[in-house]
Each structure stands twice: as C-alpha cells, then as structure tokens.
Amino acid sequence: MASAAKPLIAVCQMTSTSDKEKNFATCWGLIRGAAARGACMVFLPEAFDYIGGNAEETLSLAETLHGDTIQRYSQLARECGLWLSLGGFHEKGPNWDTDRRISNSHVVLDNTGHIVSVYRKAHLFDVDLQNGVSLRESSFTLPGAEIIRPISSPAGKLGLGVCYDLRFPEFSLALAQAGAELLTYPSAFTLTTGLAHWEVLLRARAIETQCYVVAAAQTGSHNQKRASYGHAMVADPWGAVIAQCQEGTGVCYAEIDIPYVERVRREMPVRRHRRADLYGKISFNKPD
C-alpha cells in the first residue's frame, strides 16, 4: 500500500491476440490484482483490446467509445475504485461508414467509470525493418489532430501519448511545458526497435522533461506475423528506472513522488535556461 503522499501506480504488460474476450480476462486479472495492492491508477498497453492478424481483422473488431469494450472497463473502474489508462483502443473513426478508418485512441477513465480524456495517436508507425517486417499504420488509421493538455489524476498531472509518439521530443516537451508531471507511452514496440531504443528513449524523455515516464507494454508473440518487445517500465524525473516488468504477462508498481519532481526541476533548472530566442518555443498549435 502506498502512502497518501506517494500514490501507487500499476503498469501492465500483456500479450494481446485477436481474441477480445481472452484479452479482457487478462486485463481483468491485472486490474483486480492492482486494486488489491492499493494502486490508484492502472496503465494498460497499446492494443490492450486486441491485435489482429491483418488489416481486415483489425478493422472488423473495432468499436466506438460507446461500445461494449469501453463499457466493461468503465464498470471495472467503478467496481475497483481506481483510474484506468486504456493505452490504445481501436476506435471507429468519425466517417467509419464511408472510409472504414480507425483512430488509435488513448482513453482515460476515472474511478467512477467516466471518460476523462481521449487522445488520438498523432504519429503513425510506417516502417520497413531490416528483418523484412513492414508496418503501415496509416493504411487504416487516422492521425490525431491535436495534443491533449495534461489532465489531473490521482497520480499527478498526466500527459498522454501512444507508442511511436515516444520518438518525438517536441511532443513530450510540449506536454511538460503545459504542466505534465507524468508522461505515459503505452506501447507495442517491435523486438528490433525495442532492443535498440526502448529503454534509452524512455529515460531520455524523463531526463529532458523532468517528468515520470510510464510505459505499459505488449510482449511476446501475438500471431505468426507480429511480436512485441515488452519490458514495461517507469522512469523517474532523474532518468532512473524505478520499476520494470520481467518476461510474460505481469504488473510492475511504482510510487509517484511529486515533491521529488519539483526538487529535480529546482536543482537542475533547465526550464529557466532554455534559449527560446535561439531555437523557438515549444507550444501547442490549435488544430485547423
């Protein structure tokens, strides 16, 4: 149990498949376990709802925010009395009936089950890897139109991202300058990119923003074509890894110390030392 001054968060790792019922059962167990430990907020990874074997299957399983999946998690949040970060929900787009496109949506529920915030992934993952894997998220996913301002949560002021957003420091700096104390990047990193960049990117974002960085993760083999790196973790504002999952499905826990965030920022005052006169100011742009 965490003290009142240091809220406890739970960061999950799982292996989603196209079986939505099985995925929910896994998340149900992780969330219930976290509630028993006294966590105030549980973070689930990108694609916690499912990972399809191909684009057709992925689209066929998509839902709206008012569908059964979000309703079930809303009920679970109420029953457990905690907040949920639903890291990457396959949400039917606004013109679904005509274009069959979805959003990769990070949905936050409060402890009454209400939707507090929805961030739709801005940076889409289109790559051709050396091992022959080719991923084209933009082929069926709409890019998000805006960064969402940090929200107040039991763990602190939370800035929302998803997976590939992690690679863009301007994104994290904009959230930090808007007041974020925690940044969260629920992810499904590939094995290749995870081995090379996962931990170093998370720690770098923590150091340069002086925020906690929270990264729930997919792990293991989802189907014959796709596998994820795992290693869900939490980095503190000094860049130290303070919690990390081992192999397989599981949860890691971290206490969030907001006075420590303030101390790091006070003792290493990089915000005051920024030279906006030389390289401009990172700020939110209003969507067209």
Fourth CATH level, the homologous superfamily: Carbon-nitrogen hydrolase
Mean pLDDT, all residues: 94
C-alpha geometry: globular
Indicate the CATH topology: Nitrilase/N-carbamoyl-D-aminoacid amidohydrolase
Strand runs, count: 16
Radius of gyration: 18 Å
CA-to-CA gap between the ends? 45 Å
Succession of helices and strands: EHEHHEHEEEEEEHEHEEEEEEHHH
Helix content: 25-40%
Query: Looking at the chains present, what oligomeric state does this protein adopt?
Result: single chain
Supply the CATH architecture.
Answer: 4-Layer Sandwich
CATH class: Alpha Beta
User: Helix/strand/pairing class, anyone?
Assistant: alpha/beta
Return residue spans where pLDDT drops below 50 for at least 5 consecutive residues.
none
Number of helices: 9
- Into which percentage range does the β-strand content fall? 25-35%
Largest sheet: 8 strands, mixed
Please tell me the total number of domains. Answer: 1
Structure characterization notes:
By secondary structure, this protein is of the alpha/beta class. The chain has one domain (8-279): Carbon-nitrogen hydrolase (Nitrilase/N-carbamoyl-D-aminoacid amidohydrolase), CATH 3.60.110.10. 30% of the residues lie in helices and 27% in strands. The chain has nine helices and 16 strands. The strands form three sheets. Strands 1, 2, 3, 4, 5, 12, 13 and 16 form an eight-stranded mixed β-sheet that branches. A six-stranded mixed β-sheet has the order 8-9-10-11-14-15, with helices on one face. A hairpin with a 5-residue loop joins β6 and β7. The protein starts with 7 loop residues before the first strand and ends in a 9-residue tail after the last helix. The relative contact order is 0.16. The mean pLDDT is 94.
